[in-house]
Specification:
Elements (H helix, E strand, L loop, with lengths): L4 E4 L4 E5 L6 H17 L4 E6 L3 E6 L5 H13 L9 E8 L9 H7 L4 H10 L2 E6 L6 E4 L14 E4 L3 E5 L2 E4 L4 E3 L2 E5 L20 E6 L2 H13 L5 E5 L2
Parallel strand pairs: 5-13
Antiparallel strand pairs: 1-2, 2-4, 3-4, 5-14, 6-7, 6-13, 8-11, 9-10, 9-12
C-alpha cells in the first residue's frame, strides 16, 4: 500500500491524504486503508469519511491525537496485504423519456449530439464509484465520456426528484433524495438509493461499478411498483479484480 500523509484535522480527527487525483490505484489504497482502520481501531474510531484521495477519521474523546497518528502510521506501514470486498457491477435502470429528462436536449445541443447519441454514450460506459457525499448515498462516479461534459446550470433548480440522473461538468450521478441542484437532468431511475431502514443505508457503495440501463416509461413504472413493494431485485454482477 502506497504510504499517505497523515495530519491533524480539527481536534478529534485526522486526515489521511494520497496524491490528489481521480485514479483507480489511489481508490484501491483508500478502500484498503479504510478497511484496515475499521478493523484495527474499532474502539477508538467513531466514523471514517472517504473521498477521491483522502480519508477523514473521527475518533472518540479522550484519545490523544498525536498518539493516534503514531499508531495509525505504524499500522499502515506494517499493513499486511488486504483483500478488499469483490467489486460489483450494478445495472441501474434509467428512463430517458422527456418526462424525466428535463435537460437532455440541452446536453445534446451543447455537445452537438442527438438525444439518442447522448443516451447511447451515457449507457455504454461503466462508472467506478469513488465515494459518497453531497447527499446521503450520492455516488461520485468516474469515467463520463468527454463528449458529454456539460457545465452546471446557471440557476439551480429548487427541487430535484430522488432518482434523477444528471450530468454536472465532467461528472454524472444520481440524486438519491429530493434536493436543490444545478446539474443537468437527463433521466430518472425508479430505484430507491438511500434508506435508513437498509443495512447499509446506501444502495451504491465506494468501489462499486455502475452501468446505466435504458428502460421504457412503462417498464420504469413497473419497476417503481416492485421497488415500493420490496420485491425488485437489482441486476448485479460480482467481479474479482
Amino acid at each position: 500500500m502506497k504510504q499517505p500523509t497523515i495530519k491533524p484535522f480539527g481536534e478529534q480527527a485526522v486526515l489521511i491524504e494520497w496524491k490528489p487525483a481521480i485514479d483507480d490505484k489511489i481508490l484501491d489504497n483508500v478502500l484498503k486503508a479504510n478497511q484496515l482502520i475499521q478493523q484495527s481501531f474499532k474502539e477508538e474510531v467513531i466514523e471514517t469519511v472517504s473521498a477521491y484521495s483522502s480519508i477523514a477519521v473521527f475518533f472518540k474523546k479522550g484519545i490523544k491525537q498525536n498518539d493516534f497518528i503514531e499508531q495509525l502510521t505504524k499500522k499502515l506501514k506494517k499493513a499486511p496485504k488486504i483483500e478488499t470486498s469483490l467489486s460489483r457491477i450494478l445495472h441501474i435502470p434509467v428512463c430517458y423519456d422527456s418526462k424525466f429528462a428535463l435537460d437532455i436536449e440541452t446536453v445534446a445541443k451543447k455537445n452537438e449530439l442527438s438525444v439518442k447519441e447522448v443516451i447511447a454514450m451515457h449507457t455504454e460506459q461503466q462508472y467506478k464509484v469513488y465515494f459518497l457525499g453531497f447527499l446521503p448515498g450520492f455516488p461520485y462516479l468516474g469515467g463520463l465520456n468527454k463528449q458529454l461534459h456539460t457545465p452546471r446550470k446557471d440557476t439551480p433548480r429548487e427541487k430535484i426528484e430522488a432518482g434523477s440522473v444528471a450530468i454536472g461538468g465532467s461528472q454524472t450521478g444520481v440524486y438519491t433524495t429530493y434536493s436543490p441542484g444545478g446539474w443537468n437532468i437527463i433521466g430518472k431511475s425508479p430505484l430507491s438509493f438511500f434508506s435508513i431502514k437498509n443495512n447499509p443505508p446506501a444502495l451504491i457503495q465506494p468501489g462499486d461499478i455502475v452501468q446505466f440501463k435504458q428502460v421504457s416509461k412503462d417498464l420504469f413504472l413497473q419497476i417503481e411498483v416492485e421497488v415500493a413493494a420490496g420485491v425488485y431485485k437489482i441486476e448485479e454482477e460480482v467481479i474479482d479484480d
